[in-house]
Amino acid sequence: YNSLIATCANAKPNARVDIGLSLLQEMEENGILPNTITYNSLISACTKAQPYARVDDALGLLEKMKGEFVAANERTYSALMTACRRAESGARVDDALRLWDEMKLSGIPVDTITYNTLIATCANARPVARIDDAVMLLEVLLGHTPADGPDRGSDGPDRGVQPDEYTLCGFLTCCAKGDVRETQLAEKYFMLLIGTVRLTKPVRRALGMVVGSGRGNELCAWAERERPDCVRSANSERRNEHGGGAKGVWSRTSYRTGGGRRHTPTSSSATKPRRIPPRY
Predict the structure, then answer these.
(1) pTM for the full predicted model
(2) Residues near 11 by beta carbon (within 8 Å), at least 6 away in sequence
(3) What is the pLDDT of residues 61-108, one digit of tens each?
(4) Is it the case that residue 14 has pLDDT exceeding 70?
(5) Closest Cα to residue 118, out of 180, 159, 41, 171?
(6) Could you report the per-residue pLDDT of 73-85, keeping only the tens digit for each?
């Protein structure tokens, strides 16, 4: 049954949520108890539904898990938060923050992806982005302010949770979608995070949406001058994604290799003789 439900969740172009729910009912009628994998697949199917996520069905499955004493994990809550971000009437920020509270209180580890999803949910809120909630989440992620409520310590570098370029990009997008453009907040956190976050093209684009292209270019030039590590790490990561890295660098003047790619060899690969297979 778990395999069948997972197949329904991964169906293209639209997840077969109704079939998955009917399989769950059939399991219960046959005396087969669903487990965490079963519910995670069903919640994932609700998240992948088109054109919008079926948030109420996903949250109902979570309540059903609690009633049957089936343990939820980080995959469960991550899928639920993604469903809240893809709600039909705009992102359901309050439900996503409530799920975040449950994770904290239950002792389920919260990672950077969780915060990125929450900040993206704040950016997708209607009619305007929830900038105050995004600032609160970013501050908790940085470890500057503890989260409210009992038994909820602050996250941050001490716990191995750090922001990345997706965090900054989502926050800048949230600043651009607010009631008014939060240019000061965008510049403040850009200058704060750019030392540890890579300066990628999506970050440059999101910054330009908030502060304007001219001011965005000035801030990027400042980052390249004052924080060169962020630019070098972005370039090295781009080379690794395209098959470069330690074996060479990409260049327009390099010679052509197999597959239509251009690659400049190092001295070791340049002097290595080419082995030609014999012809029979």
Answers:
(1) 0.76
(2) none
(3) 999 999 999 999 999 999 999 999 999 888 999 999 999 999 989 989
(4) yes
(5) 171
(6) 999 999 999 999 9
